[in-house]
Amino acid sequence: MNAPEPKAIRISIVEDDELTREFLADVVRSVPCLRFVSGYGESETAVLQLPRDRPDVVLMDIKLPQLSGVECVRRLRPLLPRTQFLMLTVYEDTEHIFNALAAGATGYLLKSTRRDDLVAAIQQIHSGGSPMSSGIARKVVRSFAGAPEARPPTTALSAREQEVLGLLAQGFMFKEIADTLGLGVPTVSTYIRRIYEKLQVHSRGQAAARYFSRPT
């Protein structure tokens, strides 16, 4: 008996620029493991409709008419606890990044992200990761640089987990880590979950901060 095909990841898009919204929808439609569910050009409609759509992942712009994308995430997070919100924006300043993460976003990519990396990020966030553009991850790391060490050290990790963490901290996507280390993507996801648990962190940025602040 053939194994059942994996369920497609359901995607909704909130983006006020119609051309960008259609481009993103076309990217989603072109990937067999993704399914385009809905697209919205303004925030109030998105807040009303997304709880009915129940997507697995929402690609969310920040600058929207009426409510901002950050406020959208803040209102939707309690209504969609299993949905992952991936910010896709031109803003890379610290204030926007941390406002989005504090509101409940679990990933933050720039709109200049390549198509293949966007698809990989969607798969990553759906499997429990926190994808960030490398420049964004560095900003998050710098913000934690002065924080006192109050959690388990990175020496609690196995040698393989140390390798995975190093690549994760450098901004590698899950598939890139898998290819570099000769592992499967599900195996990489498992390693990263263990790393988060051992270091008591909840995101790529926090894990990267722990990596770069480790004793050398």
Describe this structure in words.
A 5-stranded parallel β-sheet has the order 2-1-3-4-5, with helices on both faces. Helix 4 links the parallel strand 4 (about 85-90) and strand 5 (about 105-110). It has 2 domains: about 10-130, Response regulator (Rossmann fold), CATH 3.40.50.2300; about 150-210, Arc Repressor Mutant, subunit A (Orthogonal Bundle). The chain is α/β, with parallel strands linked by helices. The chain is globular, with a radius of gyration of 17 Å. The chain contains 10 helices and 5 strands. The chain has helices at about 20-30, 45-55, 70-75, 95-105, 115-125, 135-145, 160-170, 175-180, 185-200, 205-210, and strands at about 10-15, 35-40, 55-60, 85-90, 105-110.
Q: Ends: how far apart?
A: 52 Å
**Quantity of strands, as a count:** 5
The overall pLDDT, averaged over residues, is 84
CATH topology of the largest domain: Rossmann fold
Strand order of the largest sheet: 2-1-3-4-5
Tally of individual domains: 2
Envelope shape: globular
- Architecture of the largest domain, CATH level 2? 3-Layer(aba) Sandwich
Largest sheet composition = 5 strands, parallel
The number of helices is 10
- Which regions contain 5 or more consecutive residues with pLDDT less than 50? none
Q: From the alpha-carbon coordinates, what is the Rg to the nearest angstrom? A: 17 Å
From N to C, what is the helix and strand string? Answer: EHEHEHEHEHHHHHH
CATH superfamily of the largest domain: Response regulator
